[in-house]
Amino acid sequence: MRDPIAWLFYLAAFIAAVLTVEGVWLLLRSTFGDRHLNRRLSMIRKTGDAGAALSLIADREGGPLSQRLDARFPAVRDTLWAARLKISSGRMLGVTLGLAVFLMLLFGLLDAPVPVALAGGALVGVGMPVLFVQFRAGARRKKFLEQFPNAIDLIARSLQAGHPAPVAIGVVAQQMSDPIGTEFGLVVDEMTYGVDRDQALRNLAERFPAPELMMFVASVQVTRETGGNLAEVFLKLSEVIRTKAQLRKKVMAISAEGRMSCLVVSALPVVVGGAILALRPGYYADVASDPLFWPMMICPPMLLLLGVWTIWRMVNFKY
Asked: Are the C-beta atoms of 276 and 283 separated by less than 8 Å?
């Protein structure tokens, strides 16, 4: 009876430690953290310059190398911006190349064959930063789309109250949190410093190339040229976006089992391999010198990646 009681005690101690750390972190963040709604307002408060957030766009452009890379690979620039990383395309290229070279040398020190060291270093060195950036960009884009209908409603209500369109956009920048508060705030800053409203909105659509945002920008441009009740157009647009979001959530619920299967299939070999290395380190080391060892170790991960990719394509599709 002592063993189960001991395990329960250890589990309770672990949960208590986690909750304590989280409580301390929340207390420190609430006491010393930034109380402003979004990043743009925080920068304005710290610098006292109403256009301080425009430096984010300047940092995005980078030097000549980054500009050439952005011209050839605009998706990389947009993904870095969506991930909220203060890094240009050129610096991202340097990080990935440096990590790849480091891992190649590390695999070489572990007596791995030269082709394996080169392939493994290149794959992991490039794959890890790309996956990290894609994960952060996906999470921020998801939050942007969740906030977008409320932002459109706020703009529409402001227009109905008699405010002009630039002021209505400024209300979103002041009242809503990141990421949509900062993004619309940059639109306001660009208009303040002389950029045309349509061009500023097109710049926003380039930074966040989402179909819903492109519909919003097109609505503003068409209404400006042909006339009409812009507030009513925005209210209808927000209703359409909410309906699409509901459909997206239904698809996610239906495909939840497949996505969980993909997660289990991809994580199980890694967990089992790590457990074997931890419990019996010589299990692989004793046969590492065999000529067939590294070819046999390369084929299963490749087949695993192919299977994970196939499952992921089956449960993730356009809607």
From this structure: yes
- Per CATH, which fold does 141-249 belong to? Receptor-associated Protein (1.20.81)
Cis peptide before 179 (omega within 30 of 0): yes
Q: What is the pLDDT of residues 92-103, one digit of tens each?
A: 888 888 888 887
- Asked if 258 and 316 touch (Cβ cutoff 8 Å), the reply is no
Residue 111 CB partners (closer than 8 Å, separation 6+)? 288
Q: Provide, rounded to the nearest whole percent, the portion of the chain with pLDDT above 70.
A: 85
Rounded to 5 degrees, what are φ and ψ at 82? -65, -30
Question: What pLDDT was estimated at residue 224?
Answer: 79
Q: Residues 6 or more apart from 298 whose CB is under 8 A from it?
A: 116, 119
DSSP states of the chain: -HHHHHHHHHHHHHHHHHHHHHHHHHHHHHHHS--SSSHHHHHHHHH--TTTTHHHHHHHH-SHHHHHHHHH-HHHHHHHHHTT----HHHHHHHHHHHHHHHHHHHHHTT--HHHHHHHHHHHHHHHHHHHHHHHHHHHHHHHHHHHHHHHHHHHHHHHTT--HHHHHHHHHHHS-TTHHHHHHHHHHHHHTT--HHHHHHHHHHHS--HHHHHHHHHHHHHHHH---HHHHHHHHHHHHHHHHHHHHHHHHHTHHHHHHHHHHHHHHHHHHHHHHHH-THHHHTTTTSTTHHHHHHHHHHHHHHHHHHHHHHH----
pTM for the structure as a whole: 0.69
Buried b (16+ CB within 10 A) or exposed e, 207-237: bbeeebbbebbebbeebeeeeeebbebbbeb
